[in-house]
Amino acid sequence: MIPAIKRMLSRAPEVSEPAAQSKPEAQSAPRVHSLRDNYHLSQAQHAYCISLIDRIEHLYQSAPKYIESMGLDRALFFPGNEWTDIVPITGVKFRRAFDDIDYLRLMAPFAGFYLAFLDRLDRRLHEEPWDEELLSRMRQDGVSDDLVGLLQERVDPVIRLGACIDVGGGVSSCADEYARHIHNVPQKYRVRTPRMFGEIGLDIGGVLVNPDVVLCQSRINGMIAAGVFDKLDSDLERRGRIRVLEIGGGYGPLGQALKSIYKDRLEYVAVDLPSILYYPSIYLSTLANGVDCHVLLAGDAVPDRFNYLFVANYLLEEFGNQLGPVDLALNAMSFPEMSVDQVKYYAQFLRRVLRPDGVVFDENAAIKPHHTDSKEIFSTFFPFRKRVSSEVVMTKNWCQDVWSGCYVPEIFDCSDASLLK
């Protein structure tokens, strides 16, 4: 999968225009959580991950023939727009070695931040002459214990996380950016990142922090400000369980964060291109100890109850309404990278599987000339829209929205002031 990862690194960083908000004082210099501090997979867990990879590889290799035999539109289900050059239709090799899986996060720069170097590669702040050598080794040979030693020796988290591209597109210390993002946020909604899969960061108040963690926190904060959690709490009171479906969730941080909040009362469906499912299926299923985690193949039955369900995009027509009813759908910064027709397809699909009072939390913007205006498309399918903003918690005020097919009181009756209750 290395060529695809290489192309992912060239994607533009997210640039925002955050509203002025209160800035708490920066915390004192935190401890470092290094690569060597991670908990490692057991041999049994590695074997389990191999079984997941077998299914993901089958999904990937079966896609062209399945799409043709079922008469599906190739333009809808093969990678489109920006993803055309990121994910090849054939030829992807899925890494299975222990170290490649044990350090999975080092090769998963979905939001543009490259954890191995604690830097973005499209907007470098800490460029070194040996970077390309190590990148070349990782792309060719994968992750090895020797390479981990070199990264541990050469990449200083204190220095590199002292100046990062922040959520707003500026430069901040990761500690200061994290402090801004947890200000006024109740403890139960603060993102906690597992210390596995090669995580690196600062240890702040007992929590591992890096820019990926801060980005996930900004999305949780948007849901707080929008009343999404009030709605989910109400759904739980009425039905006892909630179902969340995310399209294009990267390696799975938002799914993990929501699971940490709602535990086994939340069912999470990840929909993505088959080769990309490699990452969240390994990450989320391992963290759940494999309990009620399913990678669906063509012809499988959809379980009535589950923790995590991983669904290739081209199987949506087969499984259809069996994936619903959905209480909350999510997409963050991938709809604009798709084609117009693909975004329309997903909007139609979500209208079909959402409950009558289900909502979509959407964090997207057409930043580059080739990007699709997903907001314009969604406005033709969902009559109710709430533009998320907050002066209480740090959010991405400029690009977060909630959409629904009807008036949902927990969402539309809610104002930022309700955060103060």
Characterize the structure shown.
It is a single chain. With 421 residues, this protein is α/β, with parallel strands linked by helices. The protein is 36% helix and 15% strand. The strands form four sheets. The protein has an eight-stranded mixed β-sheet. The protein has a three-stranded antiparallel β-sheet with strand order 1-6-7. The chain starts with a helix and ends in a 9-residue tail after the last helix.
User: How many beta-strand runs?
Assistant: 15
Describe the strand arrangement of the main beta sheet, using strand numbers: 10-11-9-8-12-13-15-14
Give the helix tally: 16
Into which percentage range does the β-strand content fall? 15-25%
Q: List unreliable stretches of 5+ residues.
A: 2-27
Radius of gyration: 20 Å
User: What is the mean predicted local confidence, pLDDT?
Assistant: 91
Helix content: 25-40%
Shape: globular
Class computed from helices, strands and strand pairing: alpha/beta
Q: Give the biggest sheet.
A: 8 strands, mixed
Distance between the termini: 48 Å
Oligomer description: single chain
Key phrases:
globular; 16 helices; eight-stranded mixed β-sheet; 15 strands; three-stranded antiparallel β-sheet; 421 residues; disordered N terminus; 36% helix; alpha/beta; single chain
